[in-house]
Amino acid sequence: MEELRLLPEHERRELVETLVVEEFRSALFMTPQDEFPLDTGFLDMGLTSLRLSEVKLSLEKKLECEISTAALFGHPTAGQLIDHLCA
């Protein structure tokens, strides 16, 4: 995460967005060609809380940081979560 923080803001956001979208696409069995909506709620897309927890754990490993469950449910879209992770 420290290396991530050293990147310019636009590059950091781009990288975080890529990782978040990849994880959610995988959890939803989407292909890279499928349009991924950044503004649709996780639960509205069909994710269960268990599957969302799995995505959280994977993102924590990739980003080398903790993502609280409260932050995850308090930012219920990929776009909001990306904003939170980049703040």
Automatic annotation (TrEMBL):
Superkingdom field: Bacteria
Record lineage: Bacteria, Bacillati, Actinomycetota, Actinomycetes, Kitasatosporales
Signal sequence, renumbered to the chain: none
Limits of the Carrier domain: 11-87
UniProt protein name: Acyl carrier protein
